[in-house]
Amino acid sequence: MIRFIKINIIPPFLYVFYRIYMSTVKYKEPAMPKGIGSLDNYIVAHFHQDELALVKTRINSSFVVMTSKSTDGEMMTRFLRLLGYKCVRGSSKKAGDKALIEMIHFLKSNKFNAVVAVDGPRGPIYKVKQGVVILAKQTGLPILPVAVNINNVFCINKSWNKALIPKPFSTVNIQFGNIIRVAKDTQKNKIEELTEQLEKELHSIKNLRSIV
């Protein structure tokens, strides 16, 4: 019964609530950085903490995300699909690797952008994992670091990612970092270096002290 409620009842309710709730929130997004033209596809890289605030910015556009294969992941998948996102499933190490491969194939075959929570699905918080760099290497898509700064916010401190939820009538300022490109012949040591570079870039636009 709980599973039925989570995957059949909660997603449409959450969709309606989210659309109404977030309609009170103001977004300020700068122009896209030079190097990403209007016809280019790219990978949005953000910390898991910013996910709920960022979802609204890409509603009904060409974005694919990775979601968990758990019951909660199915609930989130149905919610995101109602918002117009394409979802690729993966959670555990094995399933996550499979989902990364599926996302690579999907991006090579479709004119879509990707969204990756780079420290998910379980953290540690603010620590970028290599999957996003591997995704960029295999697809040739540039990585666009993105963060939010919110003037009035709820923080769910009990969650590992300390998720941020904009309060009603707050303002969300979108921050873009410097674009990171990954060559197809990039070797393992360079992947590690680019992962650290992305982490520092995200720390910078979120005004975090580096913990690399």
Summarize the structure.
38% of the residues lie in helices and 20% in strands. It is an alpha/beta fold and 212 residues long.
**Nearest-angstrom radius of gyration?**
17 Å
State the share of residues found in helices, binned by percent.
25-40%
The percent range for strand residues is 15-25%
**β-strand number:** 9
How many structural domains does the protein architecture include? 1
Per DSSP, the total helix count is 6
What profile does the largest beta sheet have?
7 strands, mixed
**Widest sheet, order of strands:** 1-9-6-2-5-3-4
In round numbers, the mean pLDDT is: 91
Order of helices and strands: HEEHEHEHEHEEEEH
Low-pLDDT runs of 5+ residues are none
Shape: globular
Structural class: alpha/beta
What does this structure look like?
The chain is of the alpha/beta class and 212 residues long. The protein has one domain (2-205). It has helices spanning 2-22, 51-54, 71-82, 93-109, 131-139, 188-205, and strands spanning 26-28, 43-46, 63-67, 86-89, 113-117, 143-150, 153-156, 163-166, 171-176. Strand 7 (153-156) and strand 8 (163-166) form a beta hairpin. The longest helix has 21 residues, at 2-22. The radius of gyration is 17 Å and the shape is globular.
